[in-house]
Amino acid sequence: MLERIHLAIVREVDRRGSLTAAAEVLCLTQSALSHTVKKMEQMLGTAVWRREGRNLRLTQAGEYLLSVANRVLPQLEHAQARLAQYAQGERGTLRIGMECHPCYQWLLKVVSPYLAQWPDVDVDVKQKFQFGGIGALFVYDIDILVTPDPLHRAGLRFEPVFDYEQVLVVQRGHALTRGTHVEPAQLAGEVLITYPVDIDRLDVYRQFLVPAGVRPKRHKTIETTDIMVQMVASGRGVAALPRWLVQEYADKMSIEPVRLGRDGIAKQIFVGMREADADTDYLAAFVALARHSARYAAA
Description:
Layout: H1 4-16, H2 19-25, H3 30-44, E1 49-52, E2 55-58, H4 60-87, E3 92-98, H5 104-117, E4 121-126, H6 132-138, E5 144-147, E6 156-171, E7 181-182, E8 191-194, H7 203-212, E9 218-221, H8 225-233, E10 238-242, H9 243-250, E11 255-260, E12 265-274, H10 281-292, H11 294-298
Parallel strand pairs: 3-4, 3-5, 7-11, 8-9, 8-10
Antiparallel strand pairs: 1-2, 5-12, 6-10, 6-11, 6-12
Helix pairs in contact: 1-2, 1-4, 2-3, 5-10
Keywords: Activator, Amino-acid biosynthesis, Cytoplasm, DNA-binding, Methionine biosynthesis, Repressor, Transcription, Transcription regulation
Pfam families: HTH_1, LysR_substrate
Family: Belongs to the LysR transcriptional regulatory family.
């Protein structure tokens, strides 16, 4: 029978590059690990690795076994950690994944009352995922995913929590503020500043520039919202951000929001989770508070 130790061996050999290094991580002797591998391959009736010089390369069966290990082991580890927390009288940790770069100010408005209501739950926020946000949910790296672009998959649930408008943010007094909105062609001479996200996931490209066949004069990426807005305020470029966020910064910086197109770009923020966890009380409480925070985003 395939056991957890077999999956752990395959994963650690892949991570560490050798049986010797994997044995050390798994607290096994080299001979014990080699014996277990031999018994596993006899049980499976096929080789898991083949030797190429000093290197081990996974066979087709080994590649499949590694994919199973990468799916199953994180779930077992998550379950073990969660049960240990229950045994110690703790709720655990709510791990929030963010696919919405400008949403940190909004998230703070949710996390603060959440921590007050749930003193036995810790909160951790993650932004970079090895397999992307959806993959991070499936492999139990995170419990909640905050995203404006949900990818609906079996086993996941996405709840809309608030609506917002994506707008162009420009320096106060910029020529683009003279009309009620901007057209794509008006950005052909501008430096467009965005977060370091693939262009096909940026609304200003996907829903505004690309359909019109327009490209900005130059595309520049900046990781932090504060620096991005300061660059815009100093006339170094324009950016696309949620209207609520622009209005918050406009109180202290020389910037203005301008509608993108006559009808604007309407967006929603979603909170995603695994369907199996949807009834967990402290997860449901986070979603409820996120919905309540919609008045902050709309203000």
